[in-house]
Amino acid sequence: MAVADEGDAITRAIRRHRARLNKSGRRTTSDLLAAYGDAYRSLLADATALGSKIDAARTAGVVVDAVWLQKERRYISLLADIETEVGRFAGDAYKTTLRTVADAVTAAGDDTAHVIARLRRLGSTPAAANVVSAILPTDTIETLAATTTRQAPVGKLFRTIAKDAAEEARTMLLAETAKGTSGKTIARKLASTLQIPLTRATTIVRTEQMRAYRLTAHARYESAGVTEWVWLAGTSGRTCPACWGKHGKRFPIRIPMGSHPNCRCTSVPFVDGVTDITDGETLFGALPAAEKLAVLGPAKMRAYNAGTISLADLAVDHVHAEWGQSVRQASLRELLGTAAEQFYRP
For 293, which of 6, 65, 106, 207 is 20 to 30 Å away at the CA? Predict the structure, then answer.
C-alpha cells in the first residue's frame, strides 16, 4: 500500500499547524480564536432567538416543546466549551481572547446579558445534569483549520473558486463545525458564499469534514498506543467497489486512512480478541445479485462472477502530491488489459 509522507501538502499543512499550536504561534492561535469567536457569536444569536421563543410560549400559556429546552441546554455546553478552549491560549493571545469574547457579546445585541444569565441559571439546575452535553470537537476544528489555510489544498481550492470569498468560506466552515451544524446546512452556506452549485459544495464539505474526523481519530489512536486500525465501510449498495475491497482490512498505525471524495468510510482501532469485523469480500458475496450489480456494474460483475477479479483488485491506493493518501476504483482495462474486452460484451 502506498503511504503518504511529509511530501504531500495535506500532511505538511497539518504538521506545520500543530507545531505552531504547540509553540502558541500568534497567527495559528488567531485563526482558531476567529473561528471560535464566530461560533460563539452565532450561538449567542441562536440562544437569544430561542430564549425569546420559549419566553413567548410561556407567556401565552403554551407548553414549551421539550426539544427547545434540550437545545437551549446544548447551547450551555457549547458556549462553556468555547470559553474553556479559548482560555487555553495564554500569553500573547490573552488580549485577543478577551476582545473576541467581548465582540461576540456586543454583536449579539441588548438581550445578550439576559440570555447569558438565563443559560447559566439553567446550567446550574438539576435538570441540566440529566442532559447529555454537546461536545466541542476541538481536535477536528484544529485539523480543519490546518487543511484550509492559504497554503493548504482546501484553502487554495477556495481561492481558486472565489478569491474574495475564500476567507469567509473558511471561517464559516470552522465556525459551523464548532457549532455542530449539519453537513447539509454547511454545504448550503458554502454554496452561497462561494457561488458554486450545491452538489459541489456538498462534496467539499462532506469530504473535508470526513478527512478531519479520520485524521483526528487516527491521531487519538496513535496517542493511545494503538498499533493497528481497521477499515470500516458502509457495506451497502451505495458503497463503491474500492471501499468494499477495503472493508475489514487491518493497517499499521503508520499508514493514515485516506479515501476518495464523498467517501463515508471510517476507521476503528484494532484490539486483539475484541475487534471482529467480517471482511468485505465475504459480506459482498452474501448480497443479492441485484445489489452486487448496482455496485459493480455489468462488465465488472461478469469478471467478478468469472473469478477473474476480486474486490481487493479494484481498490487502488494512491498518494497525491497535494491531497495525500487516497484510494480509487480500478478500471477493468487497467486490471486486465485487452482481456477486459470479453466482459464488456453480454
Answer: 207
DSSP H or E stretch at residue 107: helix 94-107
C-alpha 232/C-alpha 278 separation (Å) is: 10
| 163 DSSP 8-state letter | G
Q: Cβ contacts of residue 83 below 8 Å, gap of 6+?
A: 40, 101
β pairing state of 228-232 and 250-252: antiparallel
* 179's grid cell: 457549532
Alpha-carbon span 221 to 218, nearest angstrom: 5
Q: How far is 228 from 247, CA to CA, in rounded Å? A: 14
- Give mean pLDDT in consecutive 10-residue pieces for the chain, a chain of 346 residues: 55 58 53 74 82 88 87 81 69 44 46 50 43 65 84 90 92 86 94 96 94 89 92 91 95 90 92 87 94 96 96 91 87 95 89
